[in-house]
Design a protein that fits this description.
9-stranded mixed β-sheet; D-amino Acid Aminotransferase, Chain A, domain 1; alpha+beta; 2 domains; binds 3-[O-phosphonopyridoxyl]--amino-benzoic acid; D-amino Acid Aminotransferase, Chain A, domain 2; 7-stranded antiparallel β-sheet
Amino acid sequence: MKVYIDGKFYDSKNAKISVFDHGLLYGDGIFEGIRAYNGRVFKLKEHIDRLYASAKAILLEIPMTHSEMMKAVVDTCRRNKLMEGYIRLVVTRGVGTLGLNPNRCEKPSVIVIAGKIQLYPKEMYEKGMAIVTVATTRNLHNAVNPAIKSLNYLNNILAKIEANNAGVEEAIMLNSEGFVAECTGDNLFIVKGRQLLTPPLSAGALYGITRGTVMDLARQSGMEVLEPNLSRYDLFNADECFLTGTAAEIIPVVKIDGRVIGNGKPGPATGQLLQRFQELTRRTGEPLR
Ligand code: PXG
């Protein structure tokens, strides 16, 4: 595998970043997870736009233009002959001193890794997964805003550990008011009749690109899409529930905190959205060939 770092390609064993990089020392940096399907990079522009939005929020000036960044992603896929897979794009604050001050960092580093990812076991996509609500609250907007896709993912990792301890693969995180925010690396949706509901971004959810795609697909198929505050009660009494994310794609949820959702099987609306999503990912995106 060839890894892109600051304009050059390195073999994976030589793809290294300094121990003085503030990305490592403080989680000071941002990232994106992007997928390629059928020789195309899905929603590349949206991912790059979100990367620059995260950068702006943490006052990090990326030393490349949007189009240079898009080209770096495409070039890394091509160099690795990746037609189907997962791309991790990371921008760190760069090498600095032992001390928080980001002004002491000379120049951000840009890393692109083109590889594979499998988030959950395959049978969970067919049978649905059981998830639990965890005690770790989603970060507050005034602390580390959950809209920033930062390298500081401890909030999510702590929630993931709680899910693992409870014997499940994924955690529902609530915000400080007790409303549903999202899962550790996925947005959450419920289906109620012909309505599709997902927490608003203000509840502490990431502006998920899969989330946006699924909302568009649902509207196109005549569903009403709403973004109300959701409580655990709303989840327990949903007809269907599923999670979305670049890595996870669309995965059905059939049990939450021991309550069976709907009839305990992945539902028809979830299935239809998944089918439309798969069709879209095959057909659209930045071509690699
Ligand atoms: N919420 C959070 C907190 C995320 O990190 C999503 C939602 C889904 O957003 P997209 O734009 O991908 O639809 C994410 C993205 C992992 C992993 O290993 C998770 C993400 C990215 C990369 C890896 O769990 N999450």
